[in-house]
Amino acid sequence: MRSTPTSRRRSPPTGQGTKSEGWRGARGSAERTDFLTRDQWEIRRAGLQRHVSQWQSFATFGQYRRPFETSRKYLRSGAVALDWGSGNGHFAFFLVRHGVRCVGYSFEGPPTYLARETLFEHRRGDPREPVILPFAADAFDLVFSVGVLEHVHEAGGDARGSILEIERVLKPGGHFLCFHLPNQYAWGENLRKVMKRLGAREEFHPVLYTKRTFGDLLGATTFEVVEARRYGFLWRNRLSRLPGIISDAPPGVALINWLDSVLERLAPEE
Q: Whose CA is closest to 229, among 28, 11, 73?
């Protein structure tokens, strides 16, 4: 189970800022399905799935439907986005596909399949500086963290320091969208811990969050949470192991997405 906090940097009293309430709402379910299906088929036709583990099947790709739907609300013409901890570039690909100029930041080299994308550039970080971002203040309209914040300690950083740096490089009125943040009450995370203790070769996130603890992390900043939700109850990365009739066929994927949506609605409030 994942959390999706979206935070807005408050503008100074004299600043204009971005007003999220001016947006008119998400598209209908048919359009959501259309753009997800279109993107995945274009990935397949170009043979790009071999570059990204999350693209191995439609069912696995579907773990990003909530992040994609949420992100589309905040994408604006001319916006510049930072994909913080861009890794293999899968989320940067989504951003440039939707006409957003994106800077991917990571400690690794740039994804080769994005080399010809004019809207994408890569900035390689210095592992000796795990917190400091090599960008000017107020450089970005949007900053994305997709499964990154919970891992910063592994590189010698700390979450609060990273949040303060993200605040620094984000323009007043800009938005910080944090996806795939592992939830303390997630059944999958807790099951992995039990399996690990029983000797299984399982990995789990040692750092977990709740809505409250994430809010506490923002306490020393000018960020305000504008929306948050829980999603991703199924272990999507493992669904590629299922037969193709389930993991790649539209009826099977629709069933998986429906089940995930039902579980989202049944989740108790934190």
A: 73
